[in-house]
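Hey team,

Filing this mostly as a record. A colleague (T.K.) asked me to run one chain through the structure pipeline before their review meeting, and I want the input and output archived in the tracker in case anyone asks later how it was produced. No errors, nothing strange. Just documentation.

Input sequence:
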Amino acid sequence: MIQPAMVESGARAVLVVEDDDGVRGFLTCALESGGHPAVGVRTGEEAMVVLRETGAAVMLIDGILPDMHGIRLARAILDDPDLEGIAITFVTGAIREGRPAVAGIGALSKPLLARDLLDAVDVLLRWHDAGGSPIADRQAVLEQLEHIFLVGA
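Output structure:
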């Protein structure tokens, strides 16, 4: 795993927010094997600090973190004009099937294959590089995912 200070300026890093050490290790290792610089943290609070240090283009967020729900973290990112362009995918066991990214927000269901992870990150990077989506569209997708998480679909 790359430390925040080691991510080069302009590098399209992926921030992994996952409290389970084994899962976080798998995700960061798979990303790095696929050519993506990766930084892993345990909590939403740590994620907000590291985001500002790395300028990550993509975030992978566990649904439930020790200090907050993943939806709350995503909402905080979308509410911050300096961070609102970051692509987000939830990596969670709270849903049965993944959801393809729409407006730079998607979900992958645990357990997952490294290839599926890398494909999802590539889609998110293309979205990011193309200039993203209007914030209202992103907020609407996040609300839909929140409902899916609540009902467990």
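Quick notes for T.K.: Confidence is low (pLDDT under 50) at residues 1-10. The helical segments are 21-33, 44-54, 70-78, 114-129, 135-151.
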